[in-house]
Design goal:
The relative contact order is 0.25. The chain has one domain. Strand 2 and strand 3 form a beta hairpin. The protein has 175 residues and is mainly beta. The protein has an eight-stranded antiparallel β-barrel.
Length: 175
């Protein structure tokens, strides 16, 4: 019962956080982390044809990078999302110049026709701006973005697959 009491206040006092409990509680950001920024993304997931690791005579789609524009709830452009240092280090940068780089912690397929929902930990952030001090990022409510179902036909071939998502950025309230 005591463990339940420590979780409930965090959820009850942060009504801006998405409810991911119906998908996976592993996506939840707990503790003293609260949502401080939210953005809607419209963009593409970029895949490149590489040699199959199991059959050197075939090509497979390999995720290369995200490329998206971030919007606020009124439709104003507030930033961009891209690969900072390859596909394992995604970045979000705001129009004000703040930047956060993340690393994937958890991925869950909420919709088999869309890229997974993610929880990422911030590995670095800088400002000035709203993303400075970010501790975690969630990607939820995804649509599209999966690699093409048909195999690539040439090494280096690129596929840019449209996707949408919501990103929630958290910051620690501990002083």
């Amino acid at each position: 019962m005591a463990a339940l009491l420590t979780v409930l206040p965090a959820r009850a006092t942060d009504n801006r956080a998405p409810d991911v409990s119906g998908v996976s509680t592993n996506l939840e950001v707990l503790g003293d982390n609260k949502v401080h920024f939210h953005a809607n993304a419209i963009g593409v997931q970029i895949y490149t044809a590489t040699v199959s690791p199991t059959d050197a005579t075939k090509f497979v789609w390999t995720f290369t990078a995200p490329e998206a524009v971030l919007f606020d709830n009124d439709g104003n452009i507030v930033g961009t999302h891209y690969a900072y240092a390859g596909p394992t280090r995604p970045a979000w940068e705001t129009e004000s110049g703040s930047l956060v780089v993340g690393a994937r912690q958890v991925g869950v397929t909420a919709d088999p026709t869309a890229i997974p929902w993610l929880k990422l930990i911030a590995v670095s952030s800088q400002g000035p701006g709203v993303l400075d001090g970010t501790t975690f990022i969630q990607r939820v409510n995804t649509a599209g973005g999966l690699a093409p179902a048909t195999a690539p036909t040439a090494l280096g071939q690129e596929a840019r697959v449209p996707y949408t998502a919501e990103y929630y950025f958290y910051r620690s309230t501990a002083k």
